[in-house]
UniProtKB/TrEMBL annotation:
It comes from Chryseobacterium caseinilyticum. Residues 34-118 form the Rhodanese domain. Pfam families: Rhodanese. Coiled coil: none annotated. This is Rhodanese-like domain-containing protein. It comes from the Bacteria. PANTHER family: FAD-DEPENDENT OXIDOREDUCTASE, SULFURTRANSFERASE YTWF-RELATED. InterPro entries: GlpE_sulfurtransferase (IPR050229), Rhodanese-like_dom (IPR001763), Rhodanese-like_dom_sf (IPR036873).
Length: 119
């Protein structure tokens, strides 16, 4: 019984950490940024992008961003998206290392698309 309680406690902790991480890494006001001209940068693979994406988004995968970041305008605002939000955090970090100032994590592309449709 004690082991079961410990196991349940660990699972609960992991879930709480995940939810906190998800809310802390997503930026607020993304819909306003998009209305003001922010570019949605989809960092999934080309095949994933072809299966579905936000209309008007640009596709540069995480695997190619270090070679292709120069295709982006450092003066523009970018919102990175992927399938779950992990790759988009990584690309946000890479672009900021390369001197981009206005890069924000949009998380999962499907969640952002739903959010944009509601507004």
């Amino acid at each position: 019984m004690k082991n079961l309680l410990i196991f349940c406690g660990i699972i609960l902790m992991i879930y709480i950490v995940y939810r906190v991480y998800k809310y802390q890494t997503l930026d607020d006001g993304l819909d306003k940024m998009i209305k003001n001209g922010a570019v949605i940068l989809d960092v999934r693979t080309e095949k994933e992008f072809e299966m579905g994406h936000i209309s008007g988004s640009q596709n540069i995968s995480l695997g190619t961003i270090r070679e292709r970041y120069h295709e982006l305008d450092p003066n523009k605002t970018y919102i990175t998206v992927c399938s779950h939000g992990l790759r988009s955090v990584k690309v946000e970090s890479i672009l900021k290392e390369k001197g981009f100032k206005k890069v924000y994590n949009g998380g999962a592309w499907s969640d952002l698309q739903k959010s944009l449709e509601q507004n």
